[in-house]
Amino acid sequence: MNYNQLAEILFPHIDKSPKEYEAMFPARTLPKDAKVTRLGPSPTGFIHLGNLFGAFADERLAHQSNGVFYLRIEDTDDKRYVEGAVDIIINSLRFFGINFDEGASALGETGNYGSYTQSKRRPIYQAFAKKLVSEGKAYPCFLTEEEIANIRAEQESSKQNPGIYGKWAKNRNLSLDEVKEKLAAGLPYVIRLKSDGDMSLPEDQIKRFEIEDAIRGKLNMPVNDQDTVLLKANGIPTYHFAHVVDDHLMRTTHVIRGAEWLPSLPIHVELFDKLGWEPPIYCHTAQLMKIDEDGNKRKLSKRKDPELSLDYYRKLGYHPAAVREYLLTILNSNFEEWRIANPDSDIDDFQFTTEKMSNSGALFDLNKLNDVSKDVLLKINASKLFDFLKAWSEEFKPELAPIFKDRAYLEKILDIGRNEAKPRKDHIYAQQMIENISYFFDDMFKIEDEIPAEASNDTSAIISKYLASYDHFDDQETWFAKIRSIAEELGFAAKPKDYKKHPEDYKGHVGHVSTVIRIALMGRSQSPDVWEIQQILGEEKVRERLSKFL
Ligand code: GLU
């Protein structure tokens, strides 16, 4: 077989040689050890936590080493293309502090290694497919869908591995004339890799290869034996072929991708080998797992788990710094220890490494995220929190606009209890914060809790006495002393412990009395310090709420 001739017949329109492409996209001039990473999402419009998780690792590795992090749009499966998806990807990641240095963007592409959109790289893939065909390492395959289905059925019934390989690869050795004939008849064909592997050999004779995964360490796998499709009938490459060509020509040094790609690693290694290239360093990340309602550990699922979508965090108003901080705790096992030792350091000072990434499931836990968020928000001052809440509400809750009219008022509210030695950790995410502080605003104020049974017959008496004795300028001690005397006057114990000792002597204790006051003022039986809240609400509002309650 004259492979050169075969290549010319199949790709007459391809005139650029692989050498020319190598020269167009030369090795990058970067500092030694600089890492080049990429995110290669499909433009489906759905960007999820797994993407963010991977992107974060990509971003850290590149930027920590003065390397390059670029965005490549993997749109070879055009059924999945969603208009505006590139914008969605870039904006969602930017919100979480992840920025690309080059690649696809809404305003066109930046960088010298483009195009960064696979559908625009067709001639490049074909040039390399042509090279493989001309070297007898790939071939046109005319098997029809029906023939392939029959092969699969036969393989199933005889319990053999599925796929086109070995004796099933029926078009491997077509003669040039046979190919010409089929082409003349207009039969559709794909280009397949002519794999060297042979898995039909006895187990101990099957060739294996070793590769060092930066997360998983040394991997030892059987070589590929599948005649994998490289170019589909429409001339568009498969993921396998596209990523190999792209990561080589874009001079990617580290490929960070999900563990679901591990089984196809032998195909990729064989492709790099057949093209005469050094493979990048692969980093196969762990799947994101969760413990579900039944206590089982399972993969996060798009259908069952709303928290897989990045929109979930934006809609609820998680602060990006909190999400970043939390993701690092699951990305690198030594991060939490580092954080304890460096409580005030910038998160970017942490040395992120692939070695400290988990290779079994990374457990995602919303409760832990919330705990991390409480700590992170504690370090963000009231003025910045105000800006964050305002931006969030403009996007997701525009009806909240009035609460942002008085900056000083809202900042005081946001700061309640935060500057103590043992600060309150009330804030988690925007929506929850608004619910937490809603009683400060008349439009949202409502009575939510019930009066304690012990005080239900004395409610009016408590509030009228409280209102009558109220002096906005009392200090905290004087203020509370007044509540104690109201309690005593009405037959409640001034101290809870007296009530506990002799419950028969009292209606209840001072706590029940102050709960009534809390409910009248805040609508809730639980809240931060009442005296402090009254100081923020102001005398007029305090009196107004008490009177209204009566
Ligand atoms: N387009 C692939 C995906 O969405 C990217 C995998 C890779 O990063 O190589 O899963």
Can you tag this structure with a few keywords?
elongated; 3-stranded antiparallel beta sheet; binds glutamic acid; mainly alpha
Please characterize this protein's 3D structure.
This protein is mostly helical and 550 residues long. The chain is 42% helix and 9% strand. The protein has 22 helices and 13 strands. A 3-stranded parallel sheet has the order 1-2-3, with helices on one face. Strands 4-5-8 form a 3-stranded antiparallel sheet. It has a 3-stranded mixed sheet with strand order 12-11-13, with no helix packed on it. Helix 14 crosses helix 15. It is elongated. 34% of the residues are buried. The model has no long low-confidence stretch (mean pLDDT 95). Glutamic acid binds next to strand 9.
Concise structural overview:
With 550 residues, this protein is mostly helical. 42% of the residues lie in helices and 9% in strands.
Largest beta sheet: strand ordering:
1-2-3
Helix run count: 22
Report the portion of residues in β strands: 5-15%
* Spatial gap, N to C terminus: 99 Å
Helical residues, percent: 40-55%
Estimate the mean pLDDT confidence: 95
Bound molecules: glutamic acid
pLDDT under 50 segments (min length 5)? none
Structural class: mainly alpha
What is the CA-based Rg, rounded? 33 Å
DSSP E strands, number: 13
User: What can be said about the biggest beta sheet?
Assistant: 3 strands, parallel
Shape: elongated
